[in-house]
Every structure is written in structure tokens, then in C-alpha cells.
User: What shape does this take?
Amino acid sequence: MRRPVILVSNDDGIHAPGLLALARALEAVGIVYIVAPDRERSTVGHALTLHRPLRVDQLGQRRFCVNGMPSDCVNLGILGILPERPSLVVAGINHGANLGDDVTYSGTVSAAMEGTLLGIPSVAISVASEEDGFDAAARFGAILATHVLAQGMPRDTLLNVNVPANPTGVKVTRLGRRTYREKVVEQTDPRGKRYYWIGAGPALWEAGEETDFAAIQKGVVSVTPLHLDLTNYQAMEALRGWEGRLGARSRRKRARPASP
Assistant: This one.
């Protein structure tokens, strides 16, 4: 039986221990190709490099680094580097959790999102704390990859996985909501000019039994299905009544005579 091809990427860079642990674990599942940024690209979100050429260096057998973003790596891997279309994209293991609203900033989650946009089943894996190591997350990544390859994935959906130290179970969750206090810190440099640090305050979480944060707090693996269709369908119905009023105002504005 032909072994599946698996593309692995991350946002912590080609030399990150989480990436290497994940790739080693997935070698028991399929033929692993690594295409990852040449340096850390954390919190870059779903950025694509369109204003300059990208350069790829091959560091070993099926191991490549790119001077771009995580989404660039997955895009290049699927459309340009790999000799065939992969059966699965796995991003990670991220050095730290990707919970709740933080998924919108995460380069690791965005790498999985890029795979999903290109029609490949995709998973993002993070550890709750890199101090706990990557062994448990790597083992779970291999188990989950085997299951996804066998069962498939819902359309336009990726899995965001967070793994605590010594997990005692698995729970399918929804995204939590994160709030910040004292998020921006203002300081003054030696020349008297102001500068700011974003994200300097401690994070607080809204409580919720079904959330990814609650699962991690209980010591179980959180598996959150994320859907790429961001449309709020309930809001669409609520906003239908705006169409006539907005259209009328737009027509009146166009009909208004020009000023002399």
C-alpha cells in the first residue's frame, strides 16, 4: 500500500524543536516533507509574500526552508516544491498554546488554513507550554493524522489542536474568548520619544465548559474544528432590512446635482 505524503510546516522556524519532534512522529504515518520559514515568524497571521520573490534552500532530504511566511511555505510546498500533492498538511508543533481569539494571529494556524484553502485536510498542533516538551503533542499528532487520513475532514474545515502536559483525554471544543488588561505599555526612549509594547498584560479568559481553554485547564487535549466561511448567517438575515434604505440613500447621493 502506497504511503501518504504529509507536508509539515510551522511559524517557529525550520530549526524549532517542536517542528522536528512532529516530523519524526509523522514518519511512522507517511512520507514527510518539511517546508518551513527560515526564521521565527510567530503572530504573522495569514500573510502571503507578494511584493518580492521567495527563495528556497534545501537543507536535507525532503527538508526545505523559505525566506517567507508560514502560508508561503504551505503554498509553495503544495504548488511548487513537493513532487506530488500531499494527502495531509500538519502545522506545528507551536511553542505555546493557540487558544480562542489568538488563532487569528497565529502563523501556525494560518499554515493549516492555507492547506485547507488549497483543498488539503489540515491540522494545527500547539503545546500549552513549551516547558512541558513536545513528546505528548507529537504522539497525539501521529494518532490524529492516522485518523484524519482514514476518515477525511469536513469541507473547508481545519482542526486546531492544543495539547497540555500529560493529557488525560481528548475533548472536541469551541474557541474561547480572550481578554487583556493593560495590553499596551507606553515607555520613553533615551531621546525622549515615546514607544509602545503591545501584549504586555496578563491574559484573562471567559469561562465556558465547552471551550478550548477549559479543556486545557482540565488537562485534556483540545480539538477545535475551525470553518473558513466567516459569514455570520444570522446577521445576514438581520441586515436584510438595510438593503432598501442603503440603496435609496446611495441613489439619492448619485442623483444630487454637482456643485457649481
Summary: Helices lie at 17-26, 70-81, 107-117, 135-151, 212-217, 233-239, 242-255. The chain has a mean pLDDT of 91.
